[in-house]
Design a protein that fits this description.
Cofactor: Zn(2+)
Order of helices and strands: HEEEEHEHHHEEH
Helix content: 25-40%
Radius of gyration: 18 Å
CATH class: Alpha Beta
Distance between the termini: 52 Å
CATH topology: Beta-carbonic Anhydrase, Chain A
Catalytic activity: hydrogencarbonate + H(+) = CO2 + H2O
Largest sheet: 5 strands, mixed
Family: Belongs to the beta-class carbonic anhydrase family.
Protein name: carbonic anhydrase
EC number: 4.2.1.1
Shape: globular
CATH architecture: 3-Layer(aba) Sandwich
Length: 226
């Protein structure tokens, strides 16, 4: 057996010992308080970033580019894995989590700017991002570094995913959609690993967000108000 798999199983044994009693109230179903849509980047610790250790609290989805959409015969729709808790478990909060230095946003950027060949599966994922990022590239200021452009497009991508949620007739009107960026590259004010709120229900103006949500004023920050 691969040594690292053995280490993973040992870690799981410790997890099972610590969590044994935490599943008693979850045997028959779940009512998660939020669905989080995170990038599947290994640097984005999807439960740990919230300091969450309680089963049943978060319905966590992960994919490259923290996308909320999928393509079907009926067109572009909110992905079933994101929609399920909103439609069936009473979950009324959706959080889209982008992150600094996102590889999927970077790849989509490179395809749009320079062209880039990827395996078909990755290309399919990028095709879901490209049409929504292209207008953002057109809006970028001229004096930015490549890194700065990509991190602004990270915000732009989160905004587009929130827009998809808000425009979908499948998502209940009661759902609050929050867009955030997880920073481990010192792009925002704050510590590495902090989450910065950039969008609440489609509002992206920092002053307006801070005025509406003074209790989290210090956590509301954007790199780019386009």
């Amino acid at each position: 057996m691969n040594q690292f798999v053995r280490e993973l199983l040992a870690g799981n044994a410790a997890h099972a010992a610590a969590f044994d009693g935490r599943f008693d109230d979850l045997q028959e179903g779940q009512t998660p308080r939020a669905v989080t849509v995170c990038c599947s980047d290994s640097r984005v610790l999807q439960d740990a970033m919230w300091d969450n250790t309680e089963p049943g609290t978060l319905f966590t989805c992960g994919n490259i580019g923290n996308r909320v959409i999928q393509e079907t015969d009926e067109g572009t729709v909110v992905s079933g894995d994101v929609l399920y808790p909103l439609a069936h478990t009473g979950t009324e909060t959706a959080v889209v989590v982008g992150h600094t230095g996102c590889g999927a946003v970077t790849a989509a950027y490179e395809v749009l700017i320079n062209g880039l060949d990827e395996p078909a599966g990755i290309e399919h994922c990028l095709e879901l991002l490209k049409p929504h990022l292209a207008p953002g590239i057109e809006r970028l200021p001229d004096d930015l570094s490549r890194e700065a452009e990509i991190n602004r497009l990270v915000e732009y991508n989160v905004d587009r995913q929130i827009e998809h949620l808000r425009n979908s007739t499948d998502v209940p009107d009661s759902v609050t959609a929050v867009g955030v960026v997880y920073d481990f590259q010192d792009q925002y004010d704050g510590k590495r690993g902090e989450i910065h709120v950039i969008n609440i229900d489609g509002e992206t103006d920092v002053d307006a967000l801070q005025a509406a949500h003074p209790e989290i004023e210090s956590r509301i920050e954007r790199l780019w108000e386009y």
